[in-house]
Amino acid sequence: MALSATLGPHACFSHTTAALLWDLPTWGTSSRIHVTSRSRSSVRRGAPVARHVALVPDDERTEIRGLPATTLARTVADCAMTSSPAEGLVIADAALRSGADPAEVAALLTRRSGRRGVRLAREILACADVGAESPGESLTRLILLAAGFPRPTTQLEVRTHLGTFRADMGWEEWRLLIEYDGRSKYAGAELETFMREKRRADALVEAGWRLLRVTKEDLRDPDVLVTRVRRMVRGPIPHTSRPALRLP
After folding, report:
1. pLDDT tens digits for 207-222?
2. Alpha-carbon radius of gyration of the chain
3. pTM: predicted TM-score of the whole model, two decimal places
4. End-to-end alpha-carbon separation of the chain, Å?
5. 42, 8 contact by CB (below 8 A)
6. Following CA atoms 224, 229, 231, 235 in sequence, which dihedral angle do they give, to the nearest 10 degrees?
7. Distances (CA, A) of 154 to 38, 90, 104, 145, 173
8. Which of 19, 54, 93, 187 sits between 20 and 30 A of 101, alpha carbons compared?
């Protein structure tokens, strides 16, 4: 807010700073504030600011909490072009859940054809999924896609004797489910939460599904995670073209 008061009339917050203003989760964001303006002189010197020189058209800027910022679609495009694949996908997934139109993001990237980062951004947009509900789920899916697995179905519904449950992702043809377990899932009434989750997991297994749980520790060693998933696959893994995305 303090920096906003010093910005020129054509400057606005952008990239991962705009993502934070849009309440989108990020992955490894730096402490620098990203500002896009027509000239570097629009931002005071000495501030911890990452300056991007570009014209932001009126239809690509908005106000959030009274602060000038790029629109949701522009924010996704900027982040996908300049962030790591991991952070770009985390932001893109969350933006889709918040109502971002993939066609609008794709149109923005088309207008930037030939610029650095556009090809990567298109890969990220193609991998983005509205069904991912946490950064951990996004990163798990990125690892699997980069390893050549076919795209999993997110929020896959499974019928059991206890009712219908949704799994974070999975493949119906293999009857294999992947669940990302974040720490907050078991916060609060730990025993009751644990017992409820155990009954749910047992019901899924009894319905003929295999279940593999992933935690943040697994994301630190993608090769081991990929090996674990391959061991649980029943049947051949079809050859798929891998997205040109580096592992997180």
Report:
1. 999 999 999 999 999 9
2. 20
3. 0.89
4. 32
5. yes
6. -150
7. 40, 14, 22, 13, 14
8. 54
